Automatic annotation (TrEMBL):
Short name of any one Pfam family annotated for the protein: QueC
Name recorded for this polypeptide: 7-cyano-7-deazaguanine synthase
The protein's annotated pathway: Purine metabolism; 7-cyano-7-deazaguanine biosynthesis
Keyword Metal-binding: yes
Function, as annotated: Catalyzes the ATP-dependent conversion of 7-carboxy-7-deazaguanine (CDG) to 7-cyano-7-deazaguanine (preQ(0)).
Bilayer-spanning residue ranges: none
Amino acid sequence: MVECSVSGVLIFGEPDEARIRGIEDKLRSIVMRAEERGRDSWGIVTMSRDGGIKSFKSLGKASETLPKYSRLLDTDTVVAIANNRAEPTTEYVKEKGINDIQPMISEYVVVSHNGTIANDIELEGKYGIRKMSKIDSSILPPLLEKAWDGSLEGLQKILRDEIIGSFALAIIDRRRPGRLWLAVNFKPLYVMWDRELNALFFSSLDTYLEDPDKPPWETNVVKRIEPYSVIEVSREGGWRRLSLWRVDSSKPRRVLVVASGGLDSTTSATQLIKQGYDVTLLHFNYGHVAEGPEENAVRRIAEFLNVPLLEVNMDFFKIVKHSPLLGDGEINRRREGITGAEFAHEWVPARNLVFIALAVAIAEAMGYDYVATGVNLEEAGAYPDNEMEFIRLLNQVMPYAVGPNKHVELLMPVGHLVKHEIVKLGLEIGAPLHLTWSCYDKGPKHCGRCGPCFMRRLAFKINGVRDPVEYDLPPEVEEEYWRGTKPYRTPLPVGKRELTQH
């Protein structure tokens, strides 16, 4: 099985005829919308209170043949699961029978599956069971009947330890009517509780569940099931979720910190070390104006923190250009840096997205669990790729960006902080702020007039501490600006650890 749509409904309470009609109409609509992910066949299996099942299946598109069935549900129905199948080339069946159409049915267990079971042949041999069809999905009902004890923990173990492949699953069991199990790894599945119909609907895409004709205050909330999860839902209102991630708590939490050599990423790295993470710095030399001083800064920071440093030299942005940071235009220094601090004059097209994508690839390949960045609330006012929402949304697609059972999560240790709060935190935790480089220019001193210099100076002043770096400003200006502040106290280096560079 490659691409299908899994859909269905769990019905709460004691429905009357009118409510059942409404539930059936909605289910039909969902299944017909879901043929976008499968046009070769469709099937719906319903279960009643006593565990009895009814099956409705047909070849072809649901929109063409489903309307021919006059009645699917009745007031005794408690749950229905459905499937729209797109038949992959590798599983083409010329003469299809009823057992080749999902949902797959065994004596007790019924399963609707989207994805691929790569080890179906091996499972047949291991458990002494036989598929009902050449289709790999048909291994699931007999496997569950043989190996599953009906508990959520038991299902978690089978899906995590026995299944090789991809899946979004809807499972019902005649011995346990009124219960529904939903499970996903990286295949999508969404749920929606319809308040008016008192029923839980689910499908492979949120758009199949939403009603675009209703205003927002009349629509129901649609939620994605968290990737690598298994859920048990009961008609009594029970909802339990377990994770399918394989977690080894004995292993150190390894994090790759995208480090520019500036305040934000340096404070982030130091904070993560304090929190017990195994930190490696990752620095990109991408042909920007401040490449020299940034590279020097990040090397000194890595040595101070006694953590490994990976450096990536790249010429990708030589093609992109269109940014003063890449030498295409002038760095903004008007109005003592205020304008530069509050507007993205020096925007580099998709820079953070490119860096994060490369960092995630390195993390997956080298066994890191996390990628951290120095995005922060202050710069999010001008730069959209510093907004917390940017990282939050990217985290939602991480399970689809890395390989099966690979877990890479994005962290933003200072994502909720503004610049003076970052400086305050850095001072408190002993971050090597004296080694950092913030200026957009190439030095040898900070210019003191670009946006980052302006924010940096003001952030230190707010904290009552003189910035330890030198600025290319008249001495009298500096003395007047820092009057009344305390001198910066250089922290001690973090314990000894070999520095490696690549």
